[in-house]
Amino acid sequence: MIRYLAQKLVEAILVCAFVSIATFALIHWTGDLAMSIGGTEASREETERIRRFYGLDRTLIAQYFDWAGRVLRGDFGNSFFSREAVLTMVAHRLPNTIALALASLTLALLIAIPLGVVAAVRRGTWVDRACLGVGVLGQAMPSYWSALLLILVFGVELQLLPISGTESWRSFVLPTAALGWFVMPLLMRLTRAGIIEALASDYIRTARAKGLPRRAVLFKHALRNAILPVVSIAMVQLGFLLGGSIVIESVFALDGIGLLAWSAIQRSDFPVIQAIVLLVAFLFVMLNFLSDTVNGLLDPRIRHG
Amino acid sequence: MIIRQGLFGMLAAASLAFAPAAFPQSRPNVLNWGFVTEIETLDPYGTAKRTAQLVIRHVLEHLAVRDPVSGTAKPALATAWRWIDNTTIEFTLRRGVTFHDGQPFDADDVVYTVDYVKKPENQISFAQADYGFLKQAVKVDQYTVRLVLNVITPSAVDRLSQTLFILPKGAHGRMGAKEFGTKPIGTGPYRVTAFEAGRRVELARFDGYYPADWGKPRFDKIVVITIPDVQTQVAELTRGRIDFMWALQSDQMAQLKRAADVTTVTGGSVAARFLSLDAAGRSGANPMKDKNVRMAIAHAINRDAIAKVLVDPKSEVINAPCNPKQLGCAQDVTKYEYDVAKARALLRASSFPNGFELSISAFTDNGPIAEAVAGDLREIGIKAKLDFRETSAWVKDFFGGRMQASVVNWPSNGIYDVSALVPLFFMGDQGDYTRDPEVIAWFKEAGSIVDRADRERLYRLGFEKIARETYVVPLMTGVTNYAYRGKLDITIPADGSPLLYMAGWK
């Protein structure tokens, strides 16, 4: 088991390193930080002076190792634009993104699992088709579209809920609904498929033959097994959500990681972009690592495979 | 993003038509100002964002202020000025002015500010070009200061109504730039009472403000709320959470015209939009080097339709790549009327009779314009397509000399003088795809003399040659759209920079 964990840890570190290198290269190929800082009205000489001042005239490799060395010492640097410490900026916004991600995932699971179970139990009936229809609608509808519908109905028409900002828990209701609606279909379909497969298995037939009540067969035996892949995928979805939903955070003016990343990308503020990407990669890897570890504990074939 | 706006437009149009009556305005004397830009700092020298500087103008002031209607520089912290020689201006400073912390303002603060912006170690790297024309400030007496310029800059006073925020020598020196960026102290009509970076700025009226020419501040409070998505801002305006927003697109204006208790107004701008063509071949051998191709492109674009439909009915087609409001912007130069047959004939006569592939790059709201231009060019056989970029990616390649054609929208930092535009695009620097020695020489001379008639003559020579050689295709002037609630008493500025401290509720 220790060997398995060590192997996964090395993989996690390699993924983070690769992601940081790829991001670093992409930022430098697509934008020019010296021009962003100097403004478009800066002359060539001024731009070059800024390039020298910030060490941007050095090779990309030198710049990368300089940045990586400081990160290893816990120094993510300052934003080139606000001059604020990057870690402070990220830490300030992370709670909003975490709150949105957890609320959205919870909402999605609360809808997806009952719908998936009902669809599986009533397989082939109009109930099943209706549940699948809801799933298809959720998958087909881009999150910005559902966000705008929610704004117009609950914000503009009914004026029930705030549509921007993070002033209270009420500000999170509409973004949570928009994001949860987007995440829900996949989880619902997985639940449905898992229950259908479980209901057709031998141990369920045995449980039924033993005369167990229908409810006990469904929830104690079938759902317990069917839920495992749902939990794994939910972990992955949580990783995505913690990465910040740029569109949802932008539409609802929710000051989170996604919005911060978006504004940093627009002006090539690479200390901020790098920190966010590294954080998201780390969270993602950790969630996968957690998922792999749990799977490894539950299924010896995985850890010895 | 464009698709998203369109979808919202359709929804909003249907929705606003049946929208309930807007919230009644139980009005404390507060203005809620919707803002797209994230304001990360209130240090005027720590941000290159012009829009963020609009908020900072409520707190810190310049020596002069531009009259929103006439566009001329009027007294602010300086009550009078005179040219001592071609590179020295003497300013008489206003007496009895205090900073928000009660400290008096005088010549030492002006000298401190100029020294501060000119020192490279202060990392005043943002929009450094704004201060390139300044050399130093010399104190004559407590209320007289001379600004010495690096080069002859006829537009210096106009520039000083847009740049050089006067810092308090004592407080700024003590606090440092970072702390000053969160708790700035100025002489302006409002003082900062709360600041959340990227989200919210709260300003309260400064009761110690001097009697300015435009009057006294009238709001008790101004709250600047950042909402990055314009469509969400539109929705917030109809709900009444914000009272004022600006820089709207024409389709958003159309939506808001249906909303109850919302006023929409279209105002002027100093911006000019043009299609840059790589006539100098900076991006390598390319069809733009062929004059017949450039002329074909100029005749193929229905600029009037694009201006009226995609920008605003008030937008004007231009013949030179500058705004007619700007000094030196000669518009009576060679014109290219919309004539598809002529465009096709010119293309047939060029080295590319069968057309060619062309990417037209654009960023921000230039995207739809570039798309329309590409559509017009496809009509004459040029296989044009839109190359839409994020701002930083566009800036890198455009100023790196790697773009054959690009739609450029230039606000000139609000300066009413073409000297705020030509050095970037026509004088051999990073944005110049023309590289014409004659044009460079004329513009250089025009920027180094003060005689207005001579300057206009030289700029005319330059713009005439740019037009005759079709180095660029001038497109249209910009407009600025505003929307606000209730009975806001505001003078719509001619330059597109709203100064809300001059406004109030009727």
Secondary-structure map:
The complex is a heterodimer of chains A (305) and B (506).
Chain A: H1 2-30, H2 33-38, H3 44-53, H4 60-72, H5 86-121, H6 126-140, H7 143-157, H8 173-199, H9 202-209, H10 214-242, H11 246-251, H12 257-266, H13 270-298, H14 300-304
Helix pairs in contact in A: 1-13, 5-6, 5-8, 5-10, 5-13, 6-8, 7-8, 8-10, 9-10, 10-13, 12-13
Chain B: H1 2-17, E1 30-35, H2 50-56, E2 64-66, E3 73-75, E4 78-85, E5 88-93, H3 107-118, E6 134-141, E7 144-149, H4 156-160, H5 169-180, E8 190-196, E9 200-205, E10 221-226, H6 230-239, E11 244-246, H7 250-257, E12 262-267, E13 272-277, H8 291-300, H9 303-311, H10 340-348, E14 357-363, H11 367-379, E15 383-389, H12 391-399, E16 405-410, H13 422-425, H14 437-446, H15 452-468, E17 472-477, E18 480-485, E19 488-489, E20 504-505
Parallel strand pairs in B: 1-10, 14-15, 14-16
Antiparallel strand pairs in B: 2-3, 4-5, 5-7, 6-7, 8-9, 9-10, 11-18, 12-18, 13-16, 13-17, 19-20
Helix pairs in contact in B: 1-7, 8-10, 9-11, 14-15
Structure write-up:
- The complex is a heterodimer of chains A (305) and B (506).
- Chain A is mainly alpha-helical.
- Chain A contains 14 helices and no strands.
- Chain A is flat and about 85 Å long.
- Chain A starts with a helix and ends with a helix.
- In chain A, 41% of the residues are buried.
- Chain B has 506 residues and is α+β, with helices and mostly antiparallel strands.
- Chain B has a 5-stranded mixed sheet with strand order 15-14-16-13-17.
- In chain B, β14 (357-363), α11 and β15 (383-389) form a beta-alpha-beta unit.
- The two termini of chain B are 37 Å apart.
- Chains A and B meet through α2, α3, α7 and α12 of A and α1, α6 and α12 of B.
